[in-house]
Specification:
InterPro entries: MoCofactor_Util/Proc, XdhC_CoxI, XdhC_Rossmann_dom. This protein is α/β, with parallel strands linked by helices and 325 residues long. The protein contains 10 helices and 15 strands. The protein folds into 2 domains: 162 residues, no CATH class; 155 residues, Rossmann fold (3-Layer(aba) Sandwich).
């Protein structure tokens, strides 16, 4: 789940709390090429403001025009774009694909507010749930889910959809450095929620990356506070063992899918020995650490190192082995 989708739900909840009706759109299925995957979100308020994306812009423009003309005044409906479909006539996706969209009208009532609150908490990693949508009865509910399988399933016979909700991918950067700054920028571009932790006042004073949450504390303390879920990556990028080693000791106790620390082969061997001796880490815990961090791209500059780091995080997230690249 991209951080953009979390922003969609947080904004939908804010508008609903202010008394606005919102239309929540979800990509239910794609055929051929498509700009956004199943599960992608787009929300519009009753005054025409919107957040999120369903396509490169053509679908959103058509939807906003139809909404302004008075369409979508029922609790739930679906719409197909592309492929010469009657419903989306006149809209041809540039990629040539087909897009099925679920549209939910959510008035600012208590049940809708409660639904959006649970939705948000799930995207923040506080719950493991999926949405069950019954289009024939306009009923929506949450069910416990293990997160395994397609993001969206839709039974045409019962007209019931099952939409898995996974946390927005979170990147925790342990310590500020030139590599950290570029890494944060890359991660934001990939749609990650980015949090950087550093207790050093001088380092915090020179760090400015809009969209990044900055915490003036040791990364190890933040990591130990329960800040990680299964869609979390943790990277230590300072070359300072007082920050990096402590972060690694706490990181291996979390369900984070990627844990990495910057350093040469020699530095990494020395760090592994320190973590065994002083940190009490087992061989299995040390094996979880990507060190040296990142893909071997021959990187030299901070930007090149950051690129190698984020490429490796994405590789692991997508379940690719190094020799499959």
């Amino acid at each position: 789940m991209q951080h953009l989708d979390l922003r969609v739900i947080e904004q939908a909840l804010a508008w609903a709390r202010e008394g606005a009706t919102v239309w929540l759109c979800t990509v239910m299925g794609t055929y051929g090429s498509s700009p956004r995957p199943p599960g992608a979100l787009f929300v519009v308020s009753s005054d025409g403001q919107y957040v999120g994306s369903l396509s490169g812009g053509c679908v959103e423009e058509d939807f906003l025009a139809r909404l302004a003309a008075g369409e979508f005044d029922i609790p739930m409906t679906t719409l197909r774009y592309g492929g010469g479909g009657v419903e989306g006539a006149g809209v041809v996706l540039p990629c040539g694909g087909i897009l099925d969209v679920l549209i939910e009208r959510l008035p600012p009532e208590q049940d809708a507010l409660a639904h959006l609150e649970v939705f948000r908490d799930t995207l923040l990693g506080q719950k493991a749930l999926a949405r069950r949508i019954e289009l024939n009865s306009n009923a929506r509910s949450f069910v416990v889910d293990d997160g395994i399988g397609p993001r969206v399933t839709w039974d045409a016979n019962t007209n019931v959809a099952h939409i898995r909700l996974t946390p927005a991918t979170r990147l925790i950067i342990a310590g500020i450095s030139p590599v950290s700054e570029v890494c944060a920028q890359f991660a934001l571009g990939l749609g990650y929620e980015v949090i950087i932790c550093d207790p050093r006042k001088e380092a915090l004073a020179g760090f400015e990356v809009p969209g990044v949450e900055v915490r003036a504390q040791l990364p190890s303390i933040f990591i130990a506070s329960g800040a990680c879920h299964a869609a979390t990556a943790i990277v230590a990028l300072t070359h300072d063992p007082r920050i990096d080693d402590l972060a690694m000791i706490e990181a291996v106790r979390t369900p984070a899918f990627y844990i990495g620390v910057m350093g040469s082969q020699r530095t990494s061997h020395a760090r592994a020995e320190r973590l065994r001796r002083s940190g009490g880490l087992s061989e299995a815990e040390i094996a979880r650490l990507h060190m040296p961090i990142g893909l071997s791209l021959g990187s030299k500059t901070p930007a090149e190192i950051a690129l190698a780091v984020m490429a490796d995080v994405l590789r692991v997230q997508r379940g690719k082995t190094r020799n499959s690249l």
